[in-house]
Amino acid sequence: MGLKDADHAGLVVAAQAGDDRACEELIAAYLPLVYNIVGRALSGHADVDDVVQETLLRVVRDLSDLRAPESFRSWLVSITLRQINTHWHRQHVSADRTTVIDEARRIPHAGAEPVDTAILRLHVSDERRRVVEAGRWLDPDHRVLLSLWWQECAGLLSREDMAAATGLTVAHVGVRLQRMREQLELCRTIVAALEADPRCPQLGETVVGWDGHRASVWRKRIARHTRDCPVCTAASAERIPAELLPLSLTTLAVPAALIAALAAKGLLSGTAASAAGLAAAPVAGGPAPGGGGGNRAL
Length: 298
Fold this sequence. Notes:
Radius of gyration: 20 Å
Number of helices: 15
Helix content: 55-70%
Order of helices and strands: HHHHHHHHHHHHHHH
Number of strands: 0
């Protein structure tokens, strides 16, 4: 992430005192973490860059209110989660729905999705691709937990950070993560069953009328079949254990367009981006449009 735990508290204090360079260093160091949480939680939605920008703008605006600089990481994650929820709420309102939206319904066709393009380009294994696909079948709150869990496994978040960010106890976070992993396993079975060639005839009858969208109603309907179907469960019998899956997924690369957009808003400089190991070349050339996602790698 670019900073050791012992370093970031001092930068927070300096940024709170009006040190613009310290603020830029904080943004540059934690941008990959924020981008990965949002990118994974929104499953590559076109609004990922916008949500990241809104999150960082709010962080800078409210930084003076942070009373414990050493808790910056968990405070940052808490703001990130609120912005993700705000994004879902806006989508809910704009669709004039009365139920929680299934964000997967707004994911573009897989052939045009940046994440899928990166997967194909890197020739990752079917197992890695399937776990990404399974994540898109999760309920929105579980998708956020999966995103946080991946950051924990990558060493970017601790269980304590997750507890502080969500306002839960460490034990309660563990319980919720276990429930998420159980749903993830269910979704992995669904993905494997749907991709099986030949597909189970009974499953084919179950999905008659399905439009291809990963809605919860279809997840439940398909799961009722796969749970008791030896043909469908056999399709995923030799998969990698869930606790090893995050280790096979690399981090999402922050798009150059997003770095340029943050520079245009005065949140990031080329120097800070370079120091954090980000692709800062486009920043030096001036502002570039934000949003739209850019290229991402898994």
